[in-house]
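FAQ

Q: What does a record look like?
A: Structure on top, sequence underneath. For example:
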């Protein structure tokens, strides 16, 4: 019960500091626009595609899943020297704002604490994805370079959209769709204060959690009864 009070108090405090001009839809719309422009541009550059070049898609997804896992586990939940700001934003703010049983946002203004800042999408789309793309076009082929860049950009977009979905109110359609519903519950387990440093660090799908032994599942009913 006291945890609920802590979370409610943190929410009030955080909202009081958030800029009144903030718009969740503008934030999400900017991320969507930047990502789709980047991904569509890359897709339109592909020409004379050969089947084997598509194999870079699962490899790109695998690499993204590893980075997502490592960044969340080791810098989101550990105070490292160069990523202190991410630690503060993630463990300090995101996990304080969403802690069982308060795991849903109340309005689109709360998306500020779910979505990454817009500049991260811009850095991924205009710097990191092109750099990886150039590398792949150098060692493999131009098509593979563009496919890699598009895969990276779309993976990051999926991360943002899934995370918004996980924190939707329980009655939202997202929680009724099979697979989305289970992924949301995995994230709900991760948001428990005693479990957040131990389990379920992947957000898009739990591949590296399964590979590295940090996957944890407990059925919804028993989890709610015993943990909250
Ligand atoms: Zn979350
Ligand atoms: Zn976390």
């Amino acid at each position: 019960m006291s945890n609920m009070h802590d979370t409610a108090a943190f929410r009030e405090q955080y909202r009081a500091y958030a800029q009144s001009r903030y718009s969740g839809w503008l934030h999400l719309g900017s991320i969507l626009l930047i990502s789709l422009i980047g991904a569509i541009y890359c897709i339109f550059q592909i020409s004379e595609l050969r089947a084997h070049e598509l194999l870079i898609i699962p490899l790109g997804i695998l690499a993204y899943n590893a980075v997502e896992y490592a960044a969340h586990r080791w810098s989101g939940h550990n105070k490292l020297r160069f990523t202190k700001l991410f630690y503060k934003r993630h463990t300090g703010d995101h996990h304080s704002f969403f802690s069982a049983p308060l795991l849903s946002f109340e309005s689109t203004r709360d998306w500020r604490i779910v979505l990454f800042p817009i500049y991260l999408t811009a850095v991924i789309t205009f710097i990191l994805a092109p750099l990886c793309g150039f590398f792949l076009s150098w060692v493999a082929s131009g098509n593979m370079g563009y496919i890699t860049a598009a895969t990276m950009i779309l993976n990051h977009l999926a991360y943002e959209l899934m995370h918004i979905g996980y924190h939707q109110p329980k009655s939202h359609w997202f929680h009724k769709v099979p697979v989305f519903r289970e992924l949301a519950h995995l994230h709900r387990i991760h948001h428990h204060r005693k479990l957040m440093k131990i389990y379920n660090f992947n957000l898009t799908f739990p591949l590296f959690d399964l590979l590295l032994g940090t996957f944890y599942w407990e059925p919804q009913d028993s989890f709610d009864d015993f943990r909250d």
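Q: Is there anything notable about this one?
A: The pocket of zinc ion (ligand 1) is lined by residues 94, 98, 163, 166-167, 187, 191 (CB under 6 Å).
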